[in-house]
Amino acid sequence: MTRLHPFTGLAFATSAALVCLAADRWWLSLAIILACLALAARRRVGGRLAVAGGAVLAPLWLSQLLVHAAFDRTGSQVLLAGGPVRLTVEGLTTAGGLGLRAGAFAAVFLLFSLTLDRHALIRALDQAGLPAQLGYIIAAVLALVPATMERARSIAQAQAVRGAGGRGLANRLSSARLLAVPLVLASLQDATERSSALQLRGFPAGRERTQLRTVTARRWELPAGAAALCLAALLVVLLTLGVIR
Amino acid sequence: MSSPLVLPAAGTRAPLRSRLLPLLGAAVIAATYTMLVLLQPTEAAAGLSNWPAAVAFAGYLAGAILLLAGVLPQLPVSVVAVIPVGMVLNIVLGQFVGSTLVPLYLDSIGTVLVGLLAGRSAGAATGVLGSLVWSLFNPTVLPFAAGAAVIGFLAGAVGPWVLRRAWLAPVAGFLAGVVAAVISAPVAAFVYGGTSGAATGAIVAMFRAMGDSLLASVTKQALISDPADKAVAFLVAALLVLALPRRVRLQFPLPRRAARD
C-alpha cells in the first residue's frame, strides 16, 4: 500500500483532532476512534495502536474518572454514595465523554505516528524549505533514543558490577548519580564531536545542495490536506460562534 | 561548546523575522491564556463548553511553533548539536526516575540542562521540540509545548546565577514551576478535563469535592506538583553541569560566562 505524504497525514490528523475537540460529541469521538482502529488494522498496526493508546490513556481515564465521576457533588442520579465518594450518572457521562474525546485525540496522532515513514518526514521538512536544523534535530533524537538507552543500560551494569546500588533512599540517589553523570558527560562529548563534524561539512547548507532522495505527494494530496484543514477551521469557528449546536 | 569554525560576518544582526516571530509566539500564548482565564467555560458537570479545548490546543501549539520558527534558524551549530542530547535525556532520565517509584516526573531535566548550558533560546527550542518529538510516542504531551518552552527559557534566563551559586537552583526551579503550572493548567483543564496522571487526578478530585471550579482545582494541583518537580529538576541539572569536567563545561556559553564573572 502506498504511503501518504507525511504532510498530508499530518493535515488529516490535525483536522480530525481539532474537529473532535471542538465538536465534543461522544458519538463523533467514538466514530473517529473506530475509524483509526480500522485504518490501523488495514495497515497491520492495529495491535500496536491499541497497546500504545491503552498505555497513554489509562492514567488519563483514571484521572477523569476521579475528577468528574467519583466525587460528583452536583449530579442528581446517584449510583453509589459512601463517605466522600458520590458516583452519579451525570458524572460518569461527563467522564465518559471526556475520555472518548481524549481517546480520539490520541488515536489520530498515534495512527499518524505508527504509519509514518520518519525518514520521509525529515526529508519532506527539508524539501519544504523549513530550517535544516529542524530535520537534523528530529533525526538525531530518533537515532539517539535507542543508543542512549543502550548506553544507560551498559553504565548501570558496569556500576552494578562495581557494587553500586542497593536498598534505601541514599543508595538509590547514589546509583542515580553514578548513572546520570557518565551518561550526560558521554552524551555531551558526542555532541561536541558531532558539532565539529557538522560545521566542517557546512551545516546548514543552502537549498541548492544535491538531494539523494525526494519525497513526492500524489496530485490530489496537497488540495485534500488543505481542504481538510480549512474545513476543520471552519467547523471550529461555527461551533465556537454557536452557529452549529 | 566549541566556537564556530567559521567566523560570523562583522556587524550581522538577527533578521527582523527572527526577532518578531518569538515575540509573536509569546503574544499568542499570552492571548490564549488570557482568553481562557477571562472567559472561563461552563462547569464540567453541565458538560464542558466545546471551544476552550480547541482554542487551548491550537493557540498554545501555534504560539510554541512561532517561537520555534523564530529561534531555531538563529542558533549556532554547536547549540543545535546539543539540543537532541537534552531531548533524549528528558526521555531516558524521566523513564529511569519513573522506574524508581519517585513520585515526581523529572522529565524536563534535559530541557533545563540545555537552558543552563546554552541559554534562553536553546532552552525554549528544546522544550518545544521535545514536546513535538515526544508526541510521536505520546500525543497527550503535544498541547503542553508552550509550558515546556517556558521552562527552558527560564532555565536559560537564570543560568548565569544558578551556575555561580548552586543553592539558587531549587529556588529558581520552584519559581519556574509556579509559572509553568499557571500556563499549563488551562490545557490540562480544558483539553483533558483534569490531569494526565492518576495521582495528580486524585488531588484535583479533592479540590473539586471542596467546591472549586475545574480550572481552579487543576491550577491548585499544578501549583502543588510543578514547583516541587521543577525545583528538583533545576537542582539535578545544575549539579550535573557542575559535575562535568571543567574542560567540557567551559565549552558552553553560560558556564563560560559564569566562570568569567
From TrEMBL, chain A:
GO cellular component: plasma membrane
Subcellular location: Membrane
Keywords: Cell membrane, Membrane, Transmembrane, Transmembrane helix
Topology of this chain in the membrane: Multi-pass membrane protein
Transmembrane segments: 26-42, 49-71, 91-116, 222-244
Matches recorded under Pfam families: CbiQ
Keyword Transcription regulation: no
Superkingdom to which the source organism belongs: Bacteria
Presence of the UniProt keyword Cell membrane in the record: yes
Record protein name field: ABC transporter inner membrane subunit
Species of provenance: Arthrobacter crystallopoietes BAB-32
Automatic annotation (TrEMBL), chain B:
Protein keywords: Membrane, Transmembrane, Transmembrane helix
Record field: transmembrane: 20-39, 51-72, 79-106, 112-134, 141-161, 167-183, 190-211, 231-248
Highest taxon in the source lineage: Bacteria
Name of the protein this chain belongs to: Integral membrane protein
Organism of this sequence: Arthrobacter crystallopoietes BAB-32
